[in-house]
Amino acid sequence: MSCCPTQPQCEAQERLPLSDAVITEAVNNAYSAKAKAGADPTYAANVAKAFGYTEDDLSAIPREANMGLSCGNPVGTAHIKEGEYVLDLGSGGGIDVFLAASKVGPTGQVIGLDMSSEMISLARRNAAKQNLKPPHVAFVQASLDKALPIEPDSVDCILSNCVVNLLHPAGKINLLKEAYRVLKPGGRIVLDDILARATLPDEIKQDVDAYIGCISGAIELHEYKELLLESGFTDVLFVETKGDLNAYSQSDLGSNSCCSTTRLPKPLNFDVNKWAAPYQIYAVKPESGVPIERVPSALFRWWDAYPTAKSSPLPITPGDVAALLRDKTKTKSDYAVIDVRRNDHGGGHVRGSYQWAAQTFYDDLPAFYENFKDTKKVVFYCSSSAGRGPRCGGWYQDYLDAKGDQTNSTAYILEGGVKVWLSKFGDQEDLVDKD
Ligand SMILES: C[S@@+](CC[C@H](N)C(=O)[O-])C[C@H]1O[C@@H](n2cnc3c(N)ncnc32)[C@H](O)[C@@H]1O
């Protein structure tokens, strides 16, 4: 098939049989294109209602969060309670993350993982519309066929909606084992997914469009159950939801052409209901009898919840910063020193430095900019200036770059951080504040 050779999924179609890498690339390309194109709101609402979402559900979330890509409504049956930690695997535009966030309230946490950077950007924009921020609500780019960036034994409930079928075979078992690892003992998974009614014929299995369309990667109930049991889950329950998979094609919107990325899953040229069906799957990680301490966040690295900085702050030596501090003609319009360490301030800090918490720095950027936009050199530091310092400095420089030439401010990073500063100037009172 060569109707659109510029589309990676169509190129992939010519390289049969489908390898793990081909599947992942084709799925990523298709859903990233979908995230960029957006969904027709009427079409997306019709699909969502066909798979169990109510008007109330849809009116409680940003419209763009529902992309018409779901095959169930896991939050509807997950019994999510206030204060729980919830993880959504393959979170797309964030539909289930936002519904879960309203259940867990401000003391809980909901994390959405997706491999598509475009989906993650879209979901973060949607979160901003709801004023939802990390660590309470976080969207993190992550490939579900690899180790999840989540703390072990930290999550109460794992959701996933029409995603597991999209993983290649080795990715499916890896994901279920990882789901087991990150769940607290006694925690549960609630997955909406598409299952194969029987062994799929090769022409369906090897059809990339049908893979992207959540059919070719569907496995049979007994295979799914084996994977869950092999991963350690108990109390496994499968419920056929009776949703009509033709709901995705029952719309006169979008195009039937093979290259259309405006509608996914793509219309397929066989009766999908004959071969596949949507199911809801429940399973439990058994209690261990050992009390588990609640972690402050289930996210392994707090900064994964934010975009990677594109810029690097310019290096500045401790000697040059000391000269600025000692020059009494210099004011805040010339320089400012910013301490972004967490709370490890024992031993002192650069005299006159401002304290800004790194973990909320990205969300505070507008306020930080207002404070320092007229400061020529904004010098960041942390312990050794290898982590938080360059990260916050990079975010600030990105923010400045996005503002264009409205400011003369530039981000710098203090070489060696406070460790080198104290080793050089620890005994010089005009340079070090011991408080
Ligand atoms: C059919 S969509 C469902 C999105 C969302 N759960 C919903 O109901 O709207 C599948 C999502 O899973 C993501 N996905 C597919 N394979 C993945 C993988 N291997 N790792 C991470 N995300 C993946 C896609 O990028 C896409 O956003």
TrEMBL record:
Rhodanese domain: residues covered:
331-430
Q: What catalytic activity is recorded?
A: arsenic triglutathione + [thioredoxin]-dithiol + S-adenosyl-L-methionine + 2 H2O = methylarsonous acid + [thioredoxin]-disulfide + 3 glutathione + S-adenosyl-L-homocysteine + H(+); arsenic triglutathione + 3 [thioredoxin]-dithiol + 3 S-adenosyl-L-methionine = trimethylarsine + 3 [thioredoxin]-disulfide + 3 glutathione + 3 S-adenosyl-L-homocysteine + 3 H(+); arsenic triglutathione + 2 [thioredoxin]-dithiol + 2 S-adenosyl-L-methionine + H2O = dimethylarsinous acid + 2 [thioredoxin]-disulfide + 3 glutathione + 2 S-adenosyl-L-homocysteine + 2 H(+)
Which domain of life does the protein's organism represent? Eukaryota
Keywords, sorted A to Z:
S-adenosyl-L-methionine, Transferase
> Which CDD domains does the annotation name?
AdoMet_MTases
Q: What is its EC number?
A: 2.1.1.137
State if tRNA processing is listed as a keyword: no
Concerning SUPFAM superfamilies, the annotation shows: Rhodanese/Cell cycle control phosphatase, S-adenosyl-L-methionine-dependent methyltransferases
Q: Which Pfam families does the record associate with it? A: Methyltransf_31, Rhodanese
Gene Ontology molecular function: any one: arsenite methyltransferase activity
**Family under the similarity heading:** Belongs to the methyltransferase superfamily. Arsenite methyltransferase family.
Task: Give the protein name, as stated in the record.
Answer: Arsenite methyltransferase
